[in-house]
Amino acid sequence: MLPTPYIKCDYNKVYEPSEDSFLVLDSLEKDLVYLREKFKNRVTFVCELGPGSGIITTFMIQNEIPNRSNSLYFSVDINPWALDTTLTTAKLNGCSETNCYLECIQSDLTTSIRKRQVDILVFNPPYVPAVNVPEIPSSKENLDQWLDLALLGGKDGMVITQRVIDQLDDILSPTGVAYILFCARNKPEQIVSNIIETCDLWNIDLVKHRKAGWEVLSVYRFSRK
Fold this sequence. Notes:
Helix content: 25-40%
Low-confidence stretches: none
């Protein structure tokens, strides 16, 4: 079992790691051999959307996923507190600028990243169903509003996730893969079925599936055919 990063955060500002976070870690660990074989001997562009506490990005750096010496790690979040916290978490776990490349970027999803550059995309999205997706706060100090952005995903909890899925072809490199987490209320089986029926671009595989309290979570891997 790979070690989990040490986390010391202000959870009034960023999402606290929970069962969904740990399921993503377990999914990446399960696919470790696959990822190292797929991206061996080449520079790899690794991007996490919505890092929150930084636990997932730090886990990937700490455990050399896919290969730290040849990987560039980018954490992208609209929440400025999440970017600060991700850098702090990385440093707490020995991921200094001398032994890895980590860049934290404030952005609305991948709008600031060049097309078809990402080799490994990881996304634990705001998946809780809500009437609307919250507006971006006008001030860094509106802490509750920043946390709402990390949780509430609009109709069926899928508004933000669907934006990423719709843009995957533009986001991923020719050999890129994406790991996306869903909850049962997102209706992931239906989503996957619809994508397969309407789009011939993707192989979509269930990596891990887990019941977490009242919620059922799953991580799917998207890769180009």
